[in-house]
Design brief:
The complex is a heterodimer.
Chain A lengths: L17 H6 L5 H7 L2 H11 L11 H6 L10 E6 L8 H8 L1 H15 L3 E6 L4 H16 L15 E6 L9 H8 L23 E5 H5 L1 H7 L1 H5 L9 E8 L5 E6 L4 H7 L10 E5 L10 H6 L4 H6 L8 E6 L4 H15 L5 H18 L5 H14 L7 H15 L1 H10 L5 H5 L1
Parallel strand pairs in A: 1-2, 1-4, 2-3, 5-8
Antiparallel strand pairs in A: 5-6, 7-8
Chain B lengths: L3 E6 L2 E6 L4 H7 L23 E4 L6 E3 L10 E3 L3 H15 L16 H10 L16 E4 L2 E3 L9 H9 L5 E4 L6 E4 L12 H5 L5 E3 L12 E6 L8 E8 L5 E8 L12 H5 L1 H5 L6 E3 L2 E3 L1 H14 L3 E5 L5 H14 L2 E3 L24 H6 L6 H10 L2 E5 L12 H6 L3 E5 L11 E4 L8 E4 L4 E5 L12 H7 L7 H11 L16 E2 L3 H5 L3
Parallel strand pairs in B: 1-5, 16-17, 16-18, 18-19, 19-20
Antiparallel strand pairs in B: 1-2, 3-4, 3-5, 6-7, 7-10, 8-9, 11-12, 12-13, 14-15, 14-20, 21-22, 22-23
Helix pairs in contact in B: 2-3, 9-13, 9-14
The chains are: A alpha/beta, B alpha+beta.
């Protein structure tokens, strides 16, 4: 089931070195690239059906098309490498094992959108990864792929690595821009969208690492070759980080559209220790959980996930076996999003902390059924009332656990045995 | 009103000014949209989420009103069940970690959390878990005291120090419900406008050390006034209260919005100048150091003035246009020399490019309009020559530049009509107490030529007389501010068509280009 497009050089020793990477095909798309007009590149990417791999799945070529023409301002590319969502570790593989695919992709994107200054915003905790990335960038400068004349052409491109300081919210594209500008990483209200008013007030494209790293294959082999993988609307391949209770956790590149359970069985070796499956988180912690019955019918593409009322997300699949305590899982989940809320908007700032305390009250055996209902209601009250979707990234999965595994929450409430606090207060 | 657009609110068509956001545009037609973080001077931040409104058929259907311009044909939903629920939900979330210590909070009575709770929430607390605790009564400097637990993180204060004073002392640190407004360690607020933060804080998080615990705001009578702290003439509210069997006391000044004069803010010195109205007042009438009735004082003054052969009248640059006119008239009546010498009211390099002026006189502009002499040399010559000085509340010693006059003044027989006990008035043979600016009404013209009218706000038990009234008792023809105007109109061309009752609230910018081109 596995394919090797993005991961073609992952298993080659020292592929992060430019000489090794070039031996195995890196930077070969550039000759073809510079023979194309920028508009042709955008059309080719549109034709490939490539969708944003950061989780939202927005068509990449269409996003580039939103850039206003002739504003007289520079255009920026910000590569989102802030990969921080729990259970997501795909971009890390690209950064470490094939950084030149990313750099080649950056050259392609910048040629297409007319950008001469690219920022790579990398997660602060990626300390060893940033060294490898920076070394690769230095090599690319040395080899003439970056700098005043990219690959000998009359095209300047400079790439700057900007390290985050450990905030999940900076993966939100406008918070990322604020952070690069040296401000506190808080999402901006949209509109205006970054394509119009982005970094330093200039038109800006923000793309995920994997989206960018997918470009060399598309340019070198053509949109049709890329579309040969995947489904009609979910084209190409994706890096899936499979973790949790499986026999062979790891990173696998697969075409989109495969049945989830088949992938778990045939690629990841099935639920570990022969245990029963309890649920699957399909694409990072923010995606609503799937029950075993739902997991049996879903396929790994945007449309099927939406039909199952969840999201494709980041490809970070977490397998939950029968021993998982869903209430503790939800506590862990809310604790993360509460900790990472930037604190800007009232509902997210105050609400997630309240939700966390309610779950902890349940776990302490002091909760009531009314608390479960309140928790459920708070999901609705907070969601989509905020500037960004961080709060929704918490409330959407929490709602799914409350609806699909409510009995587990009620068990804590009913067996906790303590009188209701309302009665205590009398 | 400028260009207008028609849109629908809850199905009702309204016509509002184009180019404004929904909060500002709809307020003008009487539709309030609740909000904490938006302030017209500080822009839309969009963090409080209290102003979320529905847009029928809109994409997205739910928008913050502060960031949404009024568009023609827009269908805004405010009364809709869904929006009412959102407002209630946001209020609930604002309040879950709030201490609800209204009984000891100075903001109580003018607090948006209280007001919006009554209007939009009105449900019992569902919070059954421990609240977040944060810093209390933090000294932020410049008399600003911060309570982090009462704060709704609207960031108005932060934006004020960044955008208005450009001093940037405040910031929000931490994330999530641990976020809090604070100062940098050892770097408190340090600007001359810091107390505006107390005004713009929509809740009780920012309180004034000066006002804290002094008075409940619902007891305060809030009158409009003009600050007399400098020649800018900022619009203020005079908040005062008379306790049972007590005197009427001013508790604070607050900024009043006047886009033509001061915008939304006032300086701290002006704000705290209310104390001058309460303190060090001249209440007693004295003749040769003996306390007498006011009428006896007037009689003594009249006798001296009638006897004097070379009287000199000195007018204050803080006096109203009408008072100045009245004094000018009695100067003519007595054949007296009239001076408006007031160099002491200028403090060089004290002003800035915002509101604070070097000139601490409220109405020097009118001295010029009435052609009252302001020259030091001629004042000094007149003083040496005169046999009586009648000083109408001019503090020649406001700044130390007149030390050389002290000796000359000491030798002079003086009548002082004064509101405060000041060194310049001591040694006067007759002292007549008069009203201070909060106790009379009239017109003043600021340094930019904006004519503003203000009314009497405070009525003291001692009831000091308006200077204008005193001039009348001293034989002047002008018995009221209104009666001053026919003469003023006739003698000052630029005021010829001014009707004092028709001066707009924001003041009247005098069309006097010749006058304004002269001098600084």
């Amino acid at each position: 089931m596995e394919v090797k497009i993005l991961s073609a050089r992952f298993d080659i020793d020292n592929a992060h070195r430019i000489d090794v990477a070039r031996t195995h095909g890196a930077y070969r798309a550039l000759d073809k690239l510079f023979a194309m007009a920028p508009a042709e590149v955008i059309e080719e990417v549109k034709a490939s059906g490539l969708r944003g791999r950061g989780g939202a799945g927005f068509p990449t070529g269409m996003k580039w098309g939103f850039l206003p023409k002739d504003t007289g301002k520079p255009v920026y590319l910000a590569v989102n490498s802030d990969e921080s969502e729990p259970a997501t570790f795909k971009d890390r593989y690209i950064l470490v094992r094939d950084p030149h695919a990313l750099i080649e992709g950056i050259i392609i994107c910048c040629w297409a959108i007319g950008c001469h200054d690219c920022y790579i915003y990398i997660r602060g905790e990626y300390t060893s990864q940033v060294k490898i990335l920076q070394a690769a960038i230095d090599e690319a400068y040395g080899a003439g792929y970056l700098g005043a004349r990219v690959a000998g052409r009359d095209f300047r491109l400079d790439v700057t690595v900007h390290r985050g300081a450990g905030a999940y919210v900076c993966g939100e594209e406008t918070a990322l821009l604020e952070s690069i500008e040296g401000k506190k990483g808080q999402p901006r209200s949209k509109p205006p969208f970054p394509a119009v008013v982005g970094l330093f007030g200039c038109p800006t494209i923000i793309n995920n690492v994997q989206s960018i790293a997918s470009l060399p294959y598309i340019i070198a082999n053509g949109a049709a070759a890329y579309r040969a993988y995947g489904t009609e609307k979910s084209c190409g391949t994706h890096l899936f980080g499979i973790s949790g209770h499986v026999e062979r956790p790891g990173m696998y590149e697969l075409p989109l559209g495969l049945p989830l359970l088949e992938v778990l069985e045939n690629v990841a070796g099935g639920v570990w220790k022969g245990r029963k499956l309890k649920g699957v988180i399909p694409g990072g912690s923010s995606t609503p959980v799937l029950t075993p019955a739902e997991a049996a019918t879903v396929t790994l593409d945007y449309e099927s996930m939406a039909a199952h009322k969840t999201m494709f997300g980041s490809g970070g699949i977490v397998v939950l076996d029968e021993t998982v305590d869903m209430v503790r899982l939800v506590e862990n989940l809310i604790a993360f999003y509460h900790h990472e809320s930037c604190g800007q908007c009232t509902p997210c700032r105050e609400g997630l902390g309240w939700m966390l305390k309610i779950v902890r009250k349940l776990l302490a055996g002091e909760g009531t059924v009314a608390d479960i209902d309140l928790l459920r209601e708070l999901c609705d009250n907070i969601e989509m009332k905020t500037v960004c979707v961080l709060s929704a990234a918490c409330t959407m999965p929490v709602r799914s656990y409350l609806e699909k595994f409510r009995d587990e929450f009620e068990a804590y409430a009913l067996d906790g045995g303590s009188p209701q606090p309302e009665q205590r207060e009398g | 009103m400028a260009e207008t657009v028609k849109l629908f609110v809850n199905g009702r068509e309204v016509e509002v000014e184009a180019g404004k956001n929904l909060i500002d545009a709809l307020r003008v037609v009487g539709i309030e949209i609740p909000h904490f973080c938006y302030h017209p001077a500080l822009g839309a931040d969009g963090n409080c989420r209290m102003c979320l409104v529905g847009i029928e058929d809109g994409r997205p259907p739910l928008v913050p009103a502060c960031k949404t311009p009024a568009q023609p044909g827009m269908k805004v939903l405010l009364d809709d069940q869904k929006i009412r629920k959102i407002q209630r939900d946001i209020m609930e979330l604002e309040l879950i970690n709030h201490p609800v210590d209204c009984p000891v909070c100075d903001q109580a009575g003018e607090c948006r959390l209280q007001d919006y709770y009554m209007e939009y929430d009105l449900q019992d607390s569902r919070m059954r878990v421990p609240q977040v605790t944060k810093g209390k009564r933090m000294d932020f400097g410049c008399g600003v005291v911060h309570d982090q637990e009462r704060c709704v993180l609207c960031a108005r204060c932060v934006r004020f120090t960044r955008q208005i004073t450009k001093t940037g002392e405040l910031g929000i640190v931490n994330r999530s419900d641990q976020a809090r407004v604070t100062i940098f360690p050892g770097r408190p607020l340090n600007n001359r406008y810091a107390l505006n933060i107390v005004d713009i804080c929509p809740v009780g998080a920012m309180t004034s050390r000066d006002f804290r615990f002094k008075q409940r705001v619902w007891f305060l009578q809030k009158d409009e006034g003009i600050c007399h702290g400098c020649s800018t003439g900022c619009a203020i509210y005079i908040d005062h209260h008379r306790e049972k069997n007590g005197d009427d006391v001013i508790y604070r000044y607050r900024a009043r919005t006047n886009m033509q004069v001061n915008g939304y803010f006032i300086c701290d010195a002006g704000r705290l100048s209310y104390k001058r109205e309460n303190e060090n007042r001249q209440d007693l009438t004295l003749v040769d150091g003996v306390v007498v009735d006011f009428e006896q004082g007037i009689a003594a003054a009249l006798e001296k003035m009638n006897k004097a052969r070379r009287p000199l009248l000195l007018v204050s640059p803080d006096a109203t246009l009408e008072q100045m006119w009245a004094i000018k008239r009695i100067a003519t009546f007595y054949g007296a020399t009239l001076s408006g010498y007031s160099d002491a009211y200028r403090i060089d390099d004290d002003g800035d490019d915002f509101l604070i002026s070097d000139d601490k006189a409220a109405n020097r502009y009118s001295l010029e309009l009435l052609e009252i002499d302001r020259d030091r040399e001629s004042f000094q010559a007149a003083l040496a020559h005169a046999d009586l000085l009648v000083n109408f509340d001019n503090d020649l010693f406001f700044s130390p530049i007149n030390e050389s006059l002290q000796r000359l003044l000491g030798e002079q027989d003086r009548i002082s009509v004064c509101s405060h006990q000041l060194p310049v008035f001591s040694g006067s043979s007759v002292i007549l107490p008069c009203a201070s600016p909060s106790e009379y009404g009239g017109s003043i013209i600021n340094r930019h030529g904006v004519l503003q009218r203000f009314r009497r706000a405070v009525r003291r038990n001692a009831d000091p007389r308006d200077i204008l009234e005193i001039t009348h008792l001293l034989g002047g023809a002008i018995s009221s501010a209104e009666r001053a105007w026919p003469g003023i109109r006739q003698s000052v061309p630029v005021l010829r068509s001014v009707e004092p009752e028709q001066i707009p609230v924001e003041g009247l910018l005098l069309n006097n280009s010749e006058e304004r081109d002269v001098g600084p």
